[in-house]
Amino acid sequence: MSLRTDQLTTALQNVLGERIRNMKFALGEVTIVIDAIDALTVMTQLRDHPKLRFEQLVDLCGMDYSTYGEGTEQGNPEHARFAVIYHLLSIAHNYRLRVRVFAADDGFPLLPSVNEIWSAANWYEREAFDLFGILFTDHPDLRRLLTDYGFVGHPFRKDFPLSGHVEMRYDPDQQRVIYQPVTIEPRVITPRIVRAPNYADAEGFRKG
What we know:
The chain has five helices and nine strands; from the N terminus they run αββαββββαβββαα.
């Protein structure tokens, strides 16, 4: 780690203390994991404390860890399914920080909105709600952002089918666009060279 990274980790430990559930340095960046119940307090300290001063929220995204095999390495000992990742920038100190917050309830993932701390979070949180179904308390306008208002489900969840649940088409009789159940049957496409053992020999290819 560089001197600046050492200074950042020391400042984080001094300011946040036991609120840090996990801290990791990888790929040139520090990541901390905090509890959802501490999120607003910690985020406010990250923005306002003179030793940190993370004035800017660069990005916020949802995550679905339902098929992730190394949950404990992410500071997720309870193997919670949904999390939100915050990427922060301190212009004053030239620090970058990644903050991971897990939602306690997989069936109803809920986290506090940080829109009052960083106004840039508004549309990011709407995107995480739209794509992952993560809800944010006290968000001023939590509506879908990328999918249609009548869209069913959350397409970035790992259990969402690739073909979706409904399809849209124009009905000439009704003279309007209608939604209907997907007519494409799900199937696994296996390359011909895999499903036909002698495919290479049959096509005149030679091994070696």
